[in-house]
Amino acid sequence: MPRRVDAARRIWSAATERADYPRRAMRGAGSQAMAAGATLAATLAAVAGRHGWTFALLTLIALCIGRIRRFGRQGTQVAIVGFFAFFSGQGQIDCRLSQRG
After folding, report:
1. Cα-only R_g, the chain
2. What is the value of pTM for the model shown?
3. Would 45 disulfide with which of 23, 66, 70, 91, CB 3.0-4.6 Å?
4. Is 36 in contact with 61 (CB distance < 8 Å)?
5. What Cα–Cα distance (Å) separates residue 27 from each residue in 8, 17, 59?
6. Residues with Cβ < 8 Å from 42, sequence gap 6 or more?
7. By C-alpha distance, which of 47, 51, 25, 87 is closest to 79?
8. For every residue of the chain, which 3-state class applies, written as one string?
């Protein structure tokens, strides 16, 4: 009888640990890394425009920021999200709501 209880506890522990992982991942460094990458890309695009050297600068800064311990294993997302944000936004911030005419 104790073996069944022990096996049931191990199964329950494994199931709850796996169910808890997405919640921990969502509140963890992954979302912060994505926000950092998008913010970096938007800032560089607004300040310097969309050029080859701006993309090189974005790459360098994003890879350096991604090394911060707080981001942990999600640090590479800073650069990846920055790349997508930089090219999908075409280096421009949409300000149509503030422009009247």
Report:
1. 21
2. 0.62
3. 91
4. no
5. 29, 16, 25
6. 85, 89, 93
7. 87
8. CHHHHHHHHHHHHHHHHHHHHHHHHHHCHHHHHHHHHHHHHHHHHHHHCCCHHHHHHHHHHHHHHCCCHHHHHHCHHHHHHHHHHHHHCCCCCCCCCCCCC
Nearest Cα residue to 49 out of 77, 10, 91, 98: 91
- For residue 92, CA distances in Å to 3, 17, 43, 85 come to 63, 43, 10, 10
Residue 38: alpha-carbon gap to chain centroid: 8
- Give the chain's mean pLDDT: 76
How many residues appear in the chain? 101
Do 86 and 58 form a contact (C-beta atoms < 8 A)?
yes
